[in-house]
Design goal:
about 325 residues; 5-stranded mixed β-sheet; about 40% helix; transferase; porphyrin biosynthesis; hydroxymethylbilane synthase activity
Length: about 325
């Protein structure tokens, strides 16, 4: 009886050949099911990516910032057919501290980083995939976990002079009010004519032009690059050459930032980089970093690659009142 019991137990414990075949078939079925579920998950992910866009561009909400974001979107679509499809690239507007506080000078509310911090946070939180910046607003340091490997082809780096009272700074009557929030511009304006009064002048391009038309100031200076990108160059009374006003470091350049571990975004933006622009911008930012410059220091710099391949650089540092101004050139 014990032997039968053990024999019976063995029969119940050991699977038959037919049951072993069934188990093999079941295993195959489970593998196929897992593959099917994985494929379905992948399709769902692709569908979700398509719904939110393959690339989400973070940008400030000013007309100029949006124009730069749309330029980036257009270039991505030209370089990658999949990004030319409707909805493939999404533009996400983000309010920054610099946009929110307009009644104080930049130097009073924090200087550099005022127009980038909130974009950095959105990038690190994966709410956006890339961020598009005016390079002159970007600190010389980047937040850990991010890189800025791309500069689009640069626009005209000069400043535009806008006024109904004169055709240039030297022609303004003594005591005229010039609107500018930039210490760089202030120092160089006062070096030309110490009797002029430079007053804080914040807001986007349209806001500043409206204030000028309302007579709040007699003249103002704007980056020609911004006017060109918004098809508004006609509002410039004249264009100021470098001998008169040296531009801000990285003025006229657009930078694209992403997470350092985001291989897809890195691939996309690498195709958009202008090597000559990046070389010049890197040179200017190295100059600014060496001087530990910020919005509280009047510093200017402009670099360009010459036809013979050499890099020409001109830099300036001054006191805010323009009484001391030091300028140098290197090739």
């Amino acid at each position: 009886r014990r032997r039968r019991s053990r024999k019976g137990l063995n029969r119940r414990t050991l699977p038959s050949r037919s049951s072993r075949i069934s188990m093999a078939a079941l295993k195959t079925l489970l593998v196929a099911l897992a593959a099917s579920q994985a494929a379905a998950f992948g399709v769902a992910n692709l569908r979700m990516s398509a719904e939110r866009g393959l690339v989400r561009i973070g940008t400030r909400g000013s007309p100029l910032a949006l124009a730069q974001a749309h330029e980036t979107k257009r270039r991505l679509g030209e370089a990658f057919p999949e990004l030319a499809e409707d909805g493939a690239v999404e533009i996400v507007t983000i309010m920054t501290k610099g946009d929110a506080i307009l009644d104080k000078a930049l130097s009073e509310i924090g200087g550099k980083g005022l127009f980038t911090k909130e974009l950095d946070v959105s990038l690190l939180n994966k709410e956006v995939d890339i961020c598009v910046h005016s390079m002159k607003d970007v600190p010389t340091w980047l937040v850990p976990g991010t890189v800025l490997p791309c500069n689009l082809p640069r626009e005209d780096t000069r400043d535009a002079f806008i006024s109904e009272k004169a055709t240039n700074i030297a022609g303004l009557p003594d005591g005229s009010l010039v609107g500018s929030a930039s210490l760089r511009r202030q120092a160089q304006i006062l070096a030309i004519n110490p009797t002029l009064k430079v007053v804080n002048f914040r807001g986007n391009v349209q806001t500043r032009l409206r204030k000028l038309n309302e007579g709040v100031v007699d003249a103002t200076l704007l980056a020609l690059a911004g006017l060109n990108r918004m098809d508004m160059s006609h509002v410039a009374t004249s264009v100021l050459e470098y001998e008169e006003i040296l531009p801000a470091v990285a003025q006229g350049a657009i930078g694209i930032q992403c997470r350092e571990d985001d291989d897809m975004s890195l691939k996309y933006i690498a195709a958009l980089t202008c090597a000559q622009t990046k070389t010049a911008v890197d040179c200017e930012r190295a100059f600014l970093s060496t001087l530990d410059g910020n919005c509280r220091t009047p510093i200017a710099g402009q670099a360009r690659v010459l036809p013979d391949g050499q890099l020409f650089f001109e830099g300036l540092i001054a006191t805010p009142d323009g009484t001391k101004l030091y300028r140098t050139q290197r090739t």
